[in-house]
């Protein structure tokens, strides 16, 4: 295993025209310490850096999703001058000022996961939330046979991921005029809030056939609420963190957000840029669903995951 | 009677000599450790960073010192700052001038400050509860006004507030220094300050002396709101936008900075310079840990330890 | 016992009953409005639903009530829930024993509470700041321990604690009433309870009349911590999963429940049953907003107004008595 990594690194170094001295320092910015998605992204970044003989340093706000804290971390990092930055803005609009600071300092930066509304980036690596929401919702509506009553559990209002996913959900609903949308309420991407919201919605609506949750944490909250009330409905989520629930047959499907791969490819793009290798302006993963049919491939512990090869993902 | 009141007020210098708070030792220790561990720490751009990053917290902590001295507390300040920032961004996004936007932001802060003060002073409601309520209201208004979204402002005058400098000194630092100077002047040089010391120490004496204690108590909270409104200018400029949760919860950091700085919840004991030390200790700690790339989960605990250890040092000194 | 505490309790009890009556009236008024506005509000299922949602808040807020009675405060309860739940969850996963996990959860909660108590009582730190510092320390340890993972799936026996029913009523609702009875008995009928009220009403007088202040303070913070540990178990059993931030959203609502219930931050005034009504009012409002599908952005604003109204009302009635 180790020798293969080594061999891979050696080839990359030999192949690179300017044979940049390796050991680049990559600063990785994520939104919080609690969401499993960002833990996956950090693990992916670490794995990619290890493969390519670089090192990562992680900057995470101590208060989840804090704008002032991420802004301060940027200012601190500009002093410390890493070779490159892999960046997820805690807010796509309010952090543009921070990206401008990185740009002004001349540090190359790759945007991953949540697209910043401005600033200059080497590349964007991510998944189109609209497509992912659309595909996941389509799968649920098809499983319902194109009819029935559904509810939507929304994430944090104003988060661009949430807006795009909900837009995708609603597009799929338009395509299925026989499906009735009973209500659309927010669970703020939180499991316990989604659970309470679902409990209350079940009081209002005696027949709910399907639930579209904007992330998997909320989807699992919904599942618990349904189980406690002895009611059945098909539930989908987005993020790909609810793999265990899919295997257990409780969650119908989740949109694979490819957190680990986002971390991998984002970090690889940053290192490749430093080594003067070509990097496309945008790497978008196609929307993929995790369902009972393919869940086995996803049941790998985080510390056993290995980054895909750059060439396998980025095709010219 | 008024002589008694004057006697309550210690001089700034005397108070400082009598109790060098634990946080001063911690700040000194942090500077030494970080300077040894990272050669960037004492560099001019980094020291500037610590200063810039501390200004918003300082602007909440300064009036908070006064409020705590009156045996009160204001936990709505972070939410009010956030709402004022949203208002400022909204007004600017609608093509009004920066002066007008700043005025709107200051008025927002002032209104909340006055309402807080009136409920506390006139209705004798507990400050924590009053401001817990107004915190919810300010937070709710910010959410409803923005529908959870950022309000983006592209206004070069606004951006220049945070980024610009005057005679080589960043404007943000100048605003912070001015806020400190004004608060210092109010607390130690004016009648208002004398009454602030008396309000916490001996409010009955004020009443006996025929002084409108309520008026001054309202003024203390109003000053807090006004400072939150001014801090909103820096916050909004720093993000070039208003965001409905940007500074939620910041008041707790401010309260912690004030108390580790040697101001006590009881008997009107306050020391403004200690508050500055408290704010800088938090700023230096966060900055230094970032420079050393200490894992974030450890950073979280370190902030709690800073607060607890600072008070422990004070406690042991008190016992001696 | 002693003169000071004796008179205090007789005075406070009559006032307490009145306060609770007003609170119940307010809760009923909300119920009437919701019954008129939504035809599903007044159904057995929905009312049980409200009770179950209120029970978690109450378990947390009841311990906190004792702390506030001593003129203290515990800002670390939310962080405490997070850490207790996460460590209990991993113990259940490792050993497969729900009992061992439950003991660990309450034990962790108790330990954090004891630490708070020592800082406040022995080190004489302001409760507000000591528990705020503790919040950060506990969060940090929890984040480090969890490293961004989720612990998922617990044995059905344990799950019953949060999502089971007995005679059609959710188990947490029984827990709520058990702890209401225990809390009320402890506060009103034991010497400990009397001393806690005395400390909050006038610490110096309590000290002079022989109340062991430090011991009682440590006791209330330990109880508050243990209740957070217990609440974390109910939460864990109900959610069937643990993450580092699960307690985050509970601290301020728990404080608000106690305050809406008539407990005074100045200490010495308040009851555990008032806190139950406070928790019910907060839950009813959320339930109503969900039933009427009102935008959740209104939530903080509505909660803020209710807190202000409740305390405003108290202030007026107490003024009338004085």
Please describe the structure with a list of short key phrases separated by commas or semicolons.
heterotrimer; B: 320 residues; ABC transporter involved in vitamin B12 uptake, BtuC; two-stranded antiparallel ribbon; 15 helices; disordered N terminus; C: 322 residues; mainly alpha; two-stranded antiparallel sheet; 4 strands; 78% helix; 2% strand
Characterize the structure shown.
The complex is a heterotrimer of chains A (316), B (320) and C (322). Chain A is of the alpha/beta class and 316 residues long. Chain A folds into two domains: 2-126 and 258-285 and 303-313, Response regulator (Rossmann fold); 129-256, 3-Layer(aba) Sandwich (Rossmann fold), CATH 3.40.50.2300. Chain A is built from eleven helices and twelve strands. In chain A, 60% of the residues are buried. Chain B is mainly α. Chain B contains 15 helices and four strands. In chain B, a hairpin with a 2-residue loop joins strand 2 and strand 3 (169-170). In chain C, helix 1 (3-37) packs parallel to helix 12. Chain C has helices spanning 3-37, 44-69, 77-95, 98-122, 127-146, 156-163, 171-189, 191-201, 203-208, 213-239, 251-260, 272-291, 298-321, and strands spanning 151-152, 165-166, 169-170, 241-242. By secondary structure, chain C is mostly helical. The longest helix of chain C is centred in the N-terminal third of the chain and has 35 residues, at 3-37.
What Rg of chain B do the Cα atoms give? 20 Å
Number of helical regions of chain B: 15
CATH superfamily of the largest domain in chain A: Response regulator
CATH architecture of the largest domain in chain A: 3-Layer(aba) Sandwich
Helical content class of chain A: 40-55%
CATH class of the largest domain in chain A: Alpha Beta
Q: Please report the two chains with the greatest interface, counting residues with C-beta closer than 8 angstroms to the partner's C-beta.
A: B-C, 48 and 45 residues
Q: Please state the structural category of chain A.
A: alpha/beta
Task: State the CATH class of chain B.
Answer: Mainly Alpha
Total domains of chain B: 1
Q: Give the structural class of chain B.
A: mainly alpha
**What's the helix-strand series of chain A?**
HEHEHEHEEHEHEHEHEHEHEEH
Helix content of chain B: over 70%
Order of strands, widest sheet of chain B:
1-4
């Amino acid at each position: 295993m180790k020798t293969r990594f080594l061999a891979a690194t050696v080839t990359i170094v030999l192949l690179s025209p300017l044979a940049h001295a390796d050991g680049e320092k990559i600063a990785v910015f994520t939104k919080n310490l609690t969401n499993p998605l960002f833990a996956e992204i950090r693990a992916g970044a670490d794995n990619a850096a290890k493969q390519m003989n670089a090192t990562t340093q992680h900057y995470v706000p101590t208060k989840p999703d804090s704008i002032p804290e991420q802004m301060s971390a940027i200012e601190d990092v500009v002093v410390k001058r890493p070779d490159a930055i892999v960046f997820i803005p805690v807010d796509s609009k309010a952090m543009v000022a921070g990206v401008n600071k990185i740009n002004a300092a001349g540090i190359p930066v790759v945007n991953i996961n949540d697209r910043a509304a401005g600033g200059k980036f080497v590349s964007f690596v991510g998944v189109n939330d609209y497509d992912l929401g659309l595909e996941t919702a389509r799968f649920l509506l098809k499983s319902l046979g194109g009819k029935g009553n559904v509810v939507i559990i929304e994430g944090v209002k104003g988060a661009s991921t949430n807006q795009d996913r909900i837009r995708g959900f609603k597009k799929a609903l338009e395509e299925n005029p026989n499906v009735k949308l009973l209500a659309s309420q927010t669970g703020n991407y939180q499991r316990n809030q989604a659970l309470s919201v679902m409990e209350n919605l079940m009081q209002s609506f005696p027949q709910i056939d399907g639930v579209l949750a904007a992330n998997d944490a909320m989807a699992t909250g919904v599942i618990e609420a349904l189980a406690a009330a002895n009611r059945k409905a098909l539930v989908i989520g987005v993020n790909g963190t609810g793999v265990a629930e899919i295997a257990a047959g409780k969650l119908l499907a989740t949109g694979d957000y490819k957190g680990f791969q986002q971390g991998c490819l984002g970090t690889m793009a940053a290192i490749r840029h430093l080594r003067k290798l070509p990097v496309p302006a945008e790497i978008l993963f196609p929307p993929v669903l995790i369902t009972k049919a393919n869940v086995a491939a996803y049941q790998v512990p985080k510390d056993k995951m290995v980054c895909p090869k750059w060439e396998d993902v980025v095709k010219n | 009677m008024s002589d008694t009141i004057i006697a309550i007020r210690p001089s700034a210098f005397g108070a400082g000599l009598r109790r060098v708070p634990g946080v001063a030792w911690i700040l000194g220790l942090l500077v030494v450790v970080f300077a040894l561990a990272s050669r960037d720490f004492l560099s001019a751009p980094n020291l500037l960073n610590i200063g810039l990053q501390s200004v918003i917290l300082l602007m909440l902590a300064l009036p908070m010192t006064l409020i705590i001295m009156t045996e009160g507390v204001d936990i709505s300040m972070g939410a009010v700052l956030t709402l004022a920032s949203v208002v400022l961004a909204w007004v600017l996004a609608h093509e009004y001038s920066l002066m007008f936007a700043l005025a709107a932001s200051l008025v927002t802060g002032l209104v909340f400050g006055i309402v807080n003060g009136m409920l506390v002073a006139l209705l004798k409601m507990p400050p924590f509860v009053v401001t817990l309520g107004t915190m919810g209201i300010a937070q709710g208004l910010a959410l409803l006004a923005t529908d959870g979204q950022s309000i983006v402002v592209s206004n070069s005058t606004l951006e220049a507030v945070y980024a610009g400098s005057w005679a080589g000194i960043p404007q943000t630092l100048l605003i912070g220094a001015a806020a400190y100077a004004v608060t210092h002047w109010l607390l130690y040089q004016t009648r208002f300050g004398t009454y602030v010391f008396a309000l916490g120490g001996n409010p009955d004496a004020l009443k006996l002396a025929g002084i409108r204690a309520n008026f001054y108590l309202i003024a203390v909270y109003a000053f807090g709101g006004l400072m939150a409104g001014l801090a909103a200018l820096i916050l909004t400029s720093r993000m070039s936008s208003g965001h409905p949760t940007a500074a939620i919860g910041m008041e707790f950091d401010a309260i912690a900075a004030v108390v580790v700085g040697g101001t006590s919840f009881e008997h009107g004991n306050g020391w403004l310079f200690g508050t500055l030390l408290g704010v800088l200790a938090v700023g230096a700690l966060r900055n230094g840990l970032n420079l050393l790339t200490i894992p974030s989960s450890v950073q979280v605990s370190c902030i709690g330890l800073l607060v607890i250890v600072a008070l422990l040092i004070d406690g042991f000194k008190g016992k001696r | 016992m002693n003169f000071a505490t004796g008179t205090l309790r007789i005075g406070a009890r009559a006032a307490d009953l009145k306060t609770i009556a007003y609170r119940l009236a307010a809760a009923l008024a909300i119920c009437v409005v919701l019954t008129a506005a939504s035809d599903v509000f007044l159904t057995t299922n929905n009312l049980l639903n409200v009770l179950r949602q209120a029970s978690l808040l109450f378990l947390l807020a009841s311990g906190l009530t004792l702390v506030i009675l001593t003129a203290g405060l515990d800002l670390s309860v939310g962080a405490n829930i997070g850490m207790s739940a996460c460590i209990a969850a991993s113990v259940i996963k490792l050993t497969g024993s729900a009992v061992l996990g439950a003991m660990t959860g309450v034990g962790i909660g108790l330990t954090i509470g004891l630490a708070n108590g020592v800082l406040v009582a022995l080190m004489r730190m302001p409760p507000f700041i000591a528990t705020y510092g503790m919040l950060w320390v506990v969060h940090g340890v929890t984040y480090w321990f969890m490293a961004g993972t989720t612990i998922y799936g617990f044995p059905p026996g344990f799950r019953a604690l949060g999502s089971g029913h007995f005679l059609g009523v959710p188990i947490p609702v029984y827990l709520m009433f058990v702890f209401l009875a225990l809390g009320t008995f402890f506060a009103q009928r034991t010497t400990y309870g009397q001393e806690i009220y005395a400390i909050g009403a006038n610490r110096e007088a309590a000290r002079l009349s022989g109340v062991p202040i430090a011991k009682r303070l440590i006791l209330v913070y330990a109880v508050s911590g243990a209740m957070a540990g217990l609440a974390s178990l109910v939460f864990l059993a109900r959610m069937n999963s643990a993450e580092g931030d699960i307690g985050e959203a509970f601290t301020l609502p728990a404080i608000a429940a106690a305050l809406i219930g008539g407990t005074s931050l100045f200490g010495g005034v308040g009851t555990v049953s008032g806190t139950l009504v406070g928790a019910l009012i907060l839950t009813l409002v959320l339930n109503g907003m969900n039933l009427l599908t009102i935008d959740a952005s209104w939530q903080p604003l509505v909660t803020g107004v209710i807190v202000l109204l409740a305390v405003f009302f108290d202030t007026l009635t107490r003024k009338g008595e004085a």
